[in-house]
Design goal:
- There is one protein chain.
- By secondary structure, this protein is an alpha+beta fold.
- The protein folds into 2 domains: 88 residues; 92 residues, Immunoglobulin-like (Sandwich).
- It contains 4 helices and 12 strands, in the order αααβββββαβββββββ.
- β7 and β8 form a beta hairpin.
């Protein structure tokens, strides 16, 4: 009786052999690029079924393939453990993020950007404004523009939006770039207050594609961009 010699995996990938069809079906159970442990077992069993009984696979090869299977099993368990750890870390970050709601958050800068002669920015006023001045200064600290708060924001509090047309107090258009915004005011209770662009109460938390964002004013910032959280 004629027999077909099939030593090792070579016979499993040779076109036209009886075992090649079985191997192809087994490989399809995994992805097109990698074999899982179930695919590996199917390949090993297929090889054993089709090997030449007069020339069986030697023990060294069996030990090698068994070792490979054990390594694959260990790697699978490691990947599962890492996935579980990643999930736990994400849940922990989410829980910690919600704890900053209601606190103050700072982006670490009081500078706005003037672009094409225009800038819209927000400043947080913790108490109602009675009188005061909002100041826009250049990078050297020199005052460029002042805004009378008693005329534009009297009685208002919270996050207020302002528009700047890029001109200084004399009406001269300034160069595009970064400018500092600060404000000093007296509130309705007669207390003196100071505030600046870039510091706001945390209103909410948003999660998007595995990242955490913090709402400061009307904008969402990546949590990594917020340099400080503190109580009001």
């Amino acid at each position: 009786m004629a027999t077909t010699s099939t030593k090792g995996y070579e016979s499993l990938i040779t076109p036209g052999t009886a075992s090649s069809t079985t191997t192809t079906a087994a490989a399809k159970t995994g992805s097109s690029d990698t074999l899982g442990k179930d695919d590996f077992l199917k390949l090993l069993l297929t090889e054993l079924q089709h090997q030449d009984p007069t020339s069986p696979m030697d023990s060294d090869k069996i030990l090698t393939q068994t070792s490979q299977l054990a390594t694959l099993e260990s790697a699978t368990k490691t990947n599962t453990a890492l996935d579980n750890l990643s999930t736990q870390l994400k849940e922990s970050v989410s829980a910690n993020a919600t704890s900053v709601i209601g606190k103050m958050g700072s982006i670490g800068s009081d500078a706005i950007t003037l672009s094409s002669g225009k800038s819209t920015y927000e400043v947080y006023f913790p108490t109602a404004i009675k009188t005061g001045t909002l100041t826009i200064a250049d990078k050297n600290g020199a005052t460029v523009k002042t805004v009378d708060l008693s005329s534009v924001a009297a009685g208002k509090s919270g996050v207020l939006s302002f528009d700047w047309d890029g001109t200084d107090n004399s009406g001269t258009l300034q160069k595009d770039g970064a400018y500092r915004v600060t404000a000093t005011y007296v509130d309705a209770a007669g207390a003196s207050k100071t505030t600046a662009f870039g510091v706001y109460p945390v209103e909410s938390i948003r999660y998007d594609s595995g990242s955490t964002y913090v709402k400061l004013g009307s904008q969402y910032y990546a949590m990594s961009d917020v340099v400080e959280f503190y109580d009001k």
